[in-house]
Each structure stands twice: as C-alpha cells, then as structure tokens.
C-alpha cells in the first residue's frame, strides 16, 4: 500500500497556493488530482513518478506555466499525446514505464530534454527532428534499431542510445556539429566488441580476498565501499574501493558494459580504472576493485541542472590558476588519448566526472556511458572526434574561470578550443595531437 505523500494532503487542503514545484511521487494515484489545476498560474515543475497512472487528462495544458514533468515508474504504454499541447513544456521524463508508442502529438514545441530510458520503444516519430531546442535525448534500454535524422537539430549535445538494437550507428551521428556526449554500449555492433574484450587478462579475486568496510557513496550504477584487499600473503592488506553494481538499467546503459570498460581502461595515471574484479563461485562479476582516493579529491564541478540541461554547474566564484587549469586539461587529453588508443569511448567527458585534488592531479572517472569503438575507420574516427567537442567545451568552461586571462597560455587554449569546437567534425584534432600540444614542454 502506498504511503501518503504529505504534499498530496497539503494540496487537497489548499495549502500549496503559489507553488512552483509539486512532488506527488508514490501516492498511489490513478488519475491526476483535480486540485493540481488550482496551481495553474504558478506551477512549473510536476513530479508524478511511481504512481499508477496510465493516462494524463486532456485538461493538462491548463497548467500553462508547466516546464518540467516527470512520470517515471508509472504503467504508461503510450507517451501521453496531451504533453504536446503544453506550450511551455521543455523537459519530459518518463523512465521505467511500459511505453511502446511515442505519438507525434506528444512532443511539445519547446522540447529541450526528453528522457525515455528503460521502456519498450521501437520507433520514434520523425517530428522529433522538428523540435529546434532539443538538447538532451536519453533513450537507453529500448528496442530502437533506427532514429529520426536529427542532423539539423542545432542544439543536440547529449544522446544516450545504449542497450538498444542498433546494428550500426546512424549515418548522421558522426557528422553532427553539436553532439558531444554519446552512449552506445549494449547495441549489437558494439556488444560483440565487449565480448571480445573479455579475453584480455584481468585479475579476478574471490570474495574472501576483499574485506568490505563502510559505505563511501552511491552513484547511478552502484554502491562504493571502502575495503581491504588481502589476496597476497606476502604483502600487508591494502585499502581499496569496492564498487558493487545495481542490476537495474541506468540512464547511461547496462552495468555489464560499464564493468567491461572500467577493466579495459586500466593503465593510465589519470584514469580511475578497475584493478581487479571480484567473482562469485559461478565466475560472475560481483564487484570491481578500484583505487581508494584520498579525501582531497572531489568533483571539479556539479552535474547539469534542470536549467543548464547539458552543461555542468561550477561552484560560484571558482577561480583557477593557469598552471592548474593547464594541468587538468593536459591530464584529461592524455587520458582520452589512452582510451581512444585502446579502442574505448568514454561517452561522458564532463567536469563532474573529473576528480581534482585542488593542486596537481586530475583523474577521469565514471565509465557508465563508455563503449568500445567499432573497427570501421571512418565511424571510429567520427566517434572519437565527437568526444573532442566535449573536451573543447571543457576548455571553454575552465577558461572562463582562469584567474589571469591575460596569460599568454590562455590565448593558446582559446585557439585549441576553437579547433575542438569547429562544426566540421572531421577537421577537429584527435586526442594524440591535443595531448602533444598540452604536454610538459608546451606548458613552460
């Protein structure tokens, strides 16, 4: 039986007059309460997640200021067509429903961010390409074999296609001028590469070789604990981090794909990669052993907000010396060159996935969106240079926070930024070249 959400009681009493946000998650709702329409002149964000809704009322456009709606975890089979009649609606999140149909009419004109992760969708309407503000499209865990041609969607920056049924990447994908963050793992044409990578030697430990300690944190794909690794009788126990994966689909893709990428990424000083796997008696991966970082490491930025959509949110007033800024960028360029060299695409090169000690070390983390690169040369080169755009945006963001913009190195970084962001994807430099430009000799 669902617990009564206190917001529902307050709504029915009329206590929420003037509210801009309304959370009605987990209320057992089978229809939208009529009292919601009393907030029509103020309501901008509505969360209806984890209820029993299968439809939304035709009157929904009366909420004429509505910008954000979440319907995740409800038994919808059709994305409600009435959403398209909401003139201000820009963000739609219907994750983990049972949706198999997305009508043309369900896509509002102001659509900017669409989350349909973990549904049963086999096709999307061509009219998706007619939404000029579309910036973030999250479709992992569906049944898609093709996509509408979004090559003319000028702001599309992030695309999640993992765990679908693509036999190859859509042709327009590697020529898209604004696309920077892409997840492809778990599709037939890259899943074969994951299976092939399993032959790479990987240290496998049994559960008795790792003693689990306290919980350190939780991410989208798993729980991270402090642990002690004790598999070498000749050496003392060593503190490590242990990541146990959740079974569920994440917004980026499948835990199995993340595990494979995280193991394959090892071998670079600026990458937080797995050093071993922990297997059960049947040989299945139970967890990954990762290096334990000190408390001085923290994310360089926060993840995107509802307002920023695809761009990270930095601490207000953050200022970086050009020396530190250069260190971060040189470390990331070298790390990305390593990944591309061994056939991996990170998919999520963001400041919020860079762990920074505030001084001299920057580490690339989180392989939830990573995938193995296909062997076909043109496709591989195009996918690599999509990530170069992500790096260019990182350069842009850090330059905005440089403490001395007159430093001659800032002009050199500005020129590099322009190279990385140029709209003709094939003309962007690769990470080997970028890393060479940012090497120690360049920094002096």
Please give a handful of descriptors for the protein shown:
single chain; 444 residues; alpha/beta; Leucine-rich repeat, LRR (right-handed beta-alpha superhelix); Phosphorylase Kinase, domain 1; Transferase(Phosphotransferase), domain 1; 3 domains; eight-stranded parallel beta sheet; 22% helix; globular
Biggest sheet character: 8 strands, parallel
What is the overall shape? globular
Count of helical stretches: 8
Helix fraction by DSSP (H/I, runs of at least 4): 10-25%
Q: What do the pLDDT scores average to?
A: 93
CATH class bucket of the largest domain: Alpha Beta
Which fold name is given in CATH as the topology of the largest domain?
Leucine-rich repeat, LRR (right-handed beta-alpha superhelix)
CATH architectural category of the largest domain: Alpha-Beta Horseshoe
**What is the strand arrangement across the widest sheet?**
1-2-3-4-5-6-7-8
Order of helices and strands: HEEEEEEEEHEEEEHEEEHEEEEHHHH
DSSP strand tally: 19
Summed up:
The chain has helices at 6-13, 188-197, 255-264, 322-341, 377-399, 408-421, 431-437, 440-443; strands at residues 21-23, 45-47, 68-70, 91-93, 113-115, 136-138, 158-160, 181-183, 204-206, 210-218, 222-229, 238-245, 276-279, 285-290, 298-299, 344-345, 354-356, 362-364, 371-372. The protein has 444 residues and is α/β, with parallel strands linked by helices. The model has no long low-confidence stretch (mean pLDDT 93).
């Amino acid at each position: 039986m669902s617990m009564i959400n206190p917001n529902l009681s307050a709504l029915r009493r009329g206590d929420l007059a003037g509210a801009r946000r309304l959370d009605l998650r987990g209320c057992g709702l089978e229809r939208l309460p009529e009292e919601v329409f009393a907030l029509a002149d103020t309501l901008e964000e509505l969360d209806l997640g984890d209820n029993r809704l299968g439809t939304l009322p035709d009157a929904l456009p009366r909420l004429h200021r509505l910008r954000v709606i979440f319907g995740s975890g409800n038994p919808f089979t059709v994305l409600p067509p009435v959403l398209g009649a909401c003139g201000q609606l820009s963000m739609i999140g219907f994750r983990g429903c049972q949706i198999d149909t997305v009508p043309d009419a369900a896509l509002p004109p102001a659509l900017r961010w669409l989350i349909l992760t973990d549904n049963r969708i086999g096709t999307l309407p061509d009219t998706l390409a007619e939404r000029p503000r579309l910036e973030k499209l999250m479709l992992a865990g569906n049944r898609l074999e093709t996509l509408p041609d979004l090559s003319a969607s000028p702001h599309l920056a992030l695309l999640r296609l993992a765990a679908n049924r693509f036999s190859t990447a859509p042709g327009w994908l590697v020529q898209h001028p604004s696309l920077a963050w892409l997840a492809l793992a778990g599709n037939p044409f890259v899943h074969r590469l994951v299976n092939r990578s399993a032959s790479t030697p990987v240290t496998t430990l049994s559960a008795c070789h790792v003693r689990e300690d306290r919980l350190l944190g939780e991410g989208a794909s798993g729980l991270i604990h402090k642990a002690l690794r004790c598999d070498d009788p000749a050496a003392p126990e060593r503190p490590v981090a242990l990541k146990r994966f959740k079974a569920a689909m994440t917004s980026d893709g499948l835990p199995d794909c993340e595990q494979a990428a995280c193991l394959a990424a090892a071998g670079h000083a600026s990458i937080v990669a797995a050093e071993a796997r922990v297997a059960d008696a049947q040989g299945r991966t139970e967890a990954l052993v990762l290096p334990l970082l000190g408390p001085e490491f923290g994310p360089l930025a926060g993840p995107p907000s509802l307002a920023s959509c695809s761009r990270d949110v930095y601490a207000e007033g953050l200022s970086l010396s050009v020396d530190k800024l250069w260190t971060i960028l040189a470390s990331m360029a070298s790390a990305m060159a390593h990944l591309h060299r061994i056939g991996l695409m990170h998919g999520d090169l963001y400041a919020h996935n860079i762990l920074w000690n505030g001084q001299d070390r920057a580490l690339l983390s989180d392989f939830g969106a990573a995938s193995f690169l296909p062997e076909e040369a043109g496709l591989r080169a195009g996918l690599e240079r999509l990530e170069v755009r992500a790096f260019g945006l990182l350069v842009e963001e850090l330059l905005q926070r440089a403490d001395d913009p007159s430093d001659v190195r800032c002009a050199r970084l500005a020129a590099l930024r322009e190279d990385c962001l140029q709209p003709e994807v094939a003309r962007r430099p690769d990470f080997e070249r970028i890393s060479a430009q940012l090497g120690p000799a360049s920094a002096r």
